[in-house]
Amino acid sequence: MHWRGSGGAGCPVDLCCPALSFRGRLTLFLLLIVGLPMIVVAVLAARTADDASRGKADARLFAGLETATQIYESEVARAEEVASRIGQAPELAAALRSGEAAAVRRAAASLASSHGAESLAIHSADGETLASAGTGAPFAAALLELEEDGRPAGSLTASVSPPGEFVREVERLTGRRAALYEVGQPAVTLRGGESVEIPEEDGADVVLGERELRMLTGDLPDGEGRRLALFGPRETGAFFVSSPAVAGLVALVFLVALLFVLNLRRQLSGQVATMLDAAKRIGAGDFSHKVPEIGGERDEMAGLAREFNRMSGQLSEQMEQLRAQQVEIDRSVRRIGEAFASGLDRDGLLEIVTDTAVSACNAEYGLIALSGREGAEVHSGVAVEGVEDAVLAAEARASRAGELAEVEHEGAFAVSAPLRRIGDPGHDLGVMTVARKGEPFAAAERDVFLYLIGQASSSIENVALHELVSEQAVTDELTGLANARAFRDAAQKEAARAERFGHPLSLILLDVDDFKKVNDTYGHLQGDEVLRRIGAILRSASRGIDEPARYGGEEFVMALPETDSQGAEELAERVRVRIEAEEIPFHDREGLLRITASIGVATLPDAAGDLQALLAAADVALYGAKRGGKNRVAVAPSRRGNGARGATSPAQDDGATAEGPARPRRS
User: Which of 57, 116, 147, 545 is most enclosed, with most CB atoms within 10 A?
Assistant: First the structure.
């Protein structure tokens, strides 16, 4: 080997020069293999420490932004309560009825002061601002629609805390500096007057005074472009996330390695030519020749010679051990195959089967291709040139013949066999194939392959049966919707989630009008078709997070997470209209069947405090719709004294409500 620097004669680095001894070359080599990796490790460790510091700081700032969002939502909730109380105040209603601007302004000032509103604005029905009161601009505000005798009478906007108080509360709870700004601002100003330029990317290092801090920003859920910036220190917290400490540790390890290299260089001596000759003989396969042991008992080269001699004696023993290990591998493969038969993870099972078949058969590439309902395809290894064509040919031949097939194509060999369906040999599950270049598969390898084929077939059928049973346990067979048991489980989770995060949860309960008459007049087959059509309508009307289900008989139910009473009523009305417009052909006669449905709507927490009460409220509303003439939507009344939503008739699509106080809605 020649390591030369460019430059011709007189090169200072010439490792073939006789002036540089074997000891010198060995020393240089050891320094290179120790020094270069240590330098790389030092750089990577320092960078990892720096990234870890930034990551911990960003994680804490992200948690702070989550806390800020919760504080903001709490302020909005307080504003909604204040807006609701102001909206129900008699003096405000009297001022609005009078139509006098001065009266409205006096009422606004009095109500803002008495209810603790930071800012209050009264608007007319056409959006004109009639009066405003308070000491600040609206922040975390709530919008309340006002009604008079069931007609819009205007609206009011109220907030209870200024931005500065919100920032102070965020800083108190998070322990981090905070500032509000709007999208497009070039810089953000903190309390105290410090100004920091907003970086282009989120999660960046900024300089505040003489300190280097991490900055993370997030949107406030107000829809007005406000953002919050949090500032926190770079985290240290441990020895191994400190760049100087890591550098010192790496330097210490390098020093120890250097001392070891120097000590090793001093210990190496002696008979390189003799050992080289011995190495050549061993390389040629002559393990019977003894290497001369020149040197004392403590001589390293003499010890190396003894190891050479011992290695020759151990080779024959190792060959026997290899044969025994092959037997053990075969046994292990069979044990793995037995484990396959009890597995229920199809994808994981197919990967294990394919990898095991490739390993056990000394193949380069493996493939399992399933057909039918369980259709899947799993590969193992790399299909080099020629192997893929051999695999395709073997698969085709095995599928046609229904038995093991072996194919040779341009030096590539492939073995394929069908995966049998137990008890139904005429319908195979798919095929499994292994392939390699160079030599055909031996008989023992084909036997192992066939064994794995049998175990894989059994396992795949077990998985399919498990999935079918699981699906039937939660699905209504007639409509394809979730059954009542599955719906209750899902609704319980959504109710708990709604309570935890303060989100509304609405429930739609639907009953087919005069369904017994359909069954009695046209038969149960026609009734089943009616239920299937309604199931399809509910499925198409639902979002991904909604939970439509057949509740029993001709009753259907749908849970609507994060949907208030008005949104649920609108969806229920759309469903009612679609059902009324549906034309269902008779299965045994000419003509079309038209049906209608009555629907009850209830919302958590307005109409009920838990899921059981919510179901009961929706049921009461449903039977209210029935008593009101059927083919209509009725909404359960609110527990908060806001009145009850009336039943909506087919001609009443505008969502009119019975007279009652206005409901606050978030702006």
Answer: 57
